[in-house]
Amino acid sequence: MQIDLSRYRVKLAETEAERAGAQRLRYRVFVEEMGAAATAEQRAARREWDAFDPFFDHLILLDEAADIADPLDRVVGVYRLMRDTAAAGGPGFYGAAEYDLAPILASGRRSVELGRSCVAPEHRGGPAMYLLWNGLAEYVLDRGIEILFGVASLPGTDPGPVAEALAFLHHFHLAPPELRVRARPAHFLAMDRLAREAVDPARALRLLPALIKAYLRAGGCVGEGAWVDHGFNTIDVCVVMDTGRMTERYRQYYARGRER
User: Fold this and answer.
1) What are phi and psi of 193, to 5 degrees?
2) Cα–Cα distance between 41 and 39 in angstroms, integer?
3) I want to staple 193 with a disulfide (CB 3.0 to 4.6 A). Which of 47, 105, 127, 163 is the partner?
C-alpha cells in the first residue's frame, strides 16, 4: 500500500474559513462520534467551539486531493495550541478549569497547552497524526517551548472499564512533584483504583487511546487525579511533557520534523 503524502498540508489556520474547518472536524469527532454536548447554534452550524478558541493557534491538516463538496470538510486533522503568553493576556489556560496548574505556572518556563486533538475517521491509521506531530515539532522548536501539557481523554464517564488504565498511569507515569498538576475537587477521580501489583501494564496499555500512548512514548507523564467531563462524555487526564526530559528518540523525531 502506498500513501500519497503530497495530498496533505499542515499549517496554522490563518483565515476564518480554516478555523471554521477545524471546528467542523471537532464537531464530527467530539459531538457526533463521542457524544459531547452541543448548543442548538453549534448543531445548526455543525461546528464545535468555545470562548477560548480566539486565543488558541489552530494547527490543521488539510486534504487537498479529495473531491469535497464543503470546503470546511477539507480539514482532516487539528490541534489547538495556546502559548503561555496568550493565556496570560487572555482568559488563562483552558485546562485550568479542570486542573490546578500552579506547578507549571510557577516554573517560569515557556509552555504551550495542547487540546482538541483529533483526526477524521477516514484518515486514521495513516500518516495524519504523524504529519500533525511534525507540525507540532516545528511549532515547539521555533518558539523555544519547554513544557507541553493538556488534557487527554478516555471515552465515557464510568471509571470501571478503564480502572486498570488509570491505575497504570498513576503508578507508572505520575509526573514529578515540580510538574504534578492536580485535578480540581469538583469532578476529581482518584486514579489509583487498583494497587500497583494488580496492574498488568500490557493489558492497561491496550485500554488507553492511541494519543495518550504516543505521549507516554515521548516521555510524557500525568497529573494527580483524573477529571470527569460530563459535557464531553469523557474521563480526562492531564498529560505533561518536559521537552528537556523527552526520550532521545522523540527529541530526534522532533528535530527531523523541523528539517522537513
Assistant:
1) -80, -15
2) 5
3) 163
